[in-house]
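call fold(seq) -> tokens
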Amino acid sequence: MAVTKIHGIKTTVDKAIEYICNPDKTDEKIYISSFACAPETAALDFKYTLDHTTEQNFSDGQDKENKAFHLIQAFLPEEVSYEEAHAIGKELADNLLQGKYSYVLTTHIDKGHVHNHLIFCAADNIEHKHYHDCKQSYWEIRKLSDQLCQEHGLSVIEPDGKRGMKYNEWTANKNDAGWKSQIRKDINQAIKAVSSYEEFLALMKAKGYEMKGTEISENGGKYITFRPVGKDRPVRGSTKSLGKNFTKERIKERIENKRQHTPMPYKRKRIIDTASDPKFTENIGLKKWAAKENLKIASETYSKMIAHDIHNFAELDSRIRFLQEQTKNSNCTIISLEHQMQELAEMIKYAEQYQENKPYNDRYETVKDKDRFLRKYESQLILFSGAERMLQRDGIAPARMNVGKLKQTYNDLLSRKNELFKQHKTEKAEIAELELIRQNMEKYLNIASPEVPKELPLTTPEI
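ret:
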């Protein structure tokens, strides 16, 4: 399990990096990694990038004073080794920052729990756009961290699926002794299962509810009422009694909105298992409703399968296997492109630093008072020296580099990656759709998956 938090750094970037690189905390600097900068000169590298940002590089509401961001990833005590924690931190940094932002990553081992510190520049090295720190970007960090923990066999904090309640909802739930909450729960479940207001009324009736005032018209009464089995008095579907989402007008609106946002009902509809759930054997009305609903779902499923030009289970399995192979190949290509882009982004950063600061180095080599010149232009000389060293380390001749061509190559790789990502997403959606088709048809035909004859044709359900 890993807990994450992030905050902006407005002034002391150098001191923050010095703190996270403390040898006493990082096992004599063994657990330190960096990208597109050196830990010793990271503050200067960040400043160089930030100096190239303009007003157009900021989104509305962004804090323009942030020079860097400090992300902390803390693990459960004794759940992860130092090496694995550092590897997870690097994977998080590379996935989150996509090879665009310079960063320094360290793993601290001096406390009871191992934790990573990631400090990254507030602007990226390619377009010099400012990182947008908001709730959405934080949830992306948390999601990535949880995924990496799962991949490494660590525990994660499982969400309970609950949302916060408004005070009036909480008060209502507290005062209704529980049975109004059950009515709300049954109404919500029914809304999820149906596609029209009429179906909703039929399902609630099948659940055993007695209802009055259901018609939505001037003559239909102001409120719909629900009387559950075993209760002497009905409950109004009013804002005061159940809440504003449970009036008959609002119930109909919620069903219609759900239908508008889910144009492909086969994706959300699954065959209802009436055999293993005792509520269907105990309630004949509910069982009849489920049988009718299953027939409708099976018909929609079969129609969708025919639209894919698939007529039997053998063709269905063949198509799924083909798409799975396609997604595997496209995913491998996307990962390869991301690695190329990361290497190219680092090269672009150093190439720009080299070119912009080379005039200072040329002057330094010819100037008479070198000490005075060094005091005045120390930052520029350090950046030039660092960029030259990093490029030469990779066997690149700095003087021959064309930054414009490098950026064009980067953009070409980005375009190709985006196209492949769209294709990958479409293929995964089709796989999910076809797998749901298979599950629904098998359940409806009462066929056990391992025993399905591959040549068995599927027949259209009669309605």
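DSSP finds 15 helices and eight strands in the chain.
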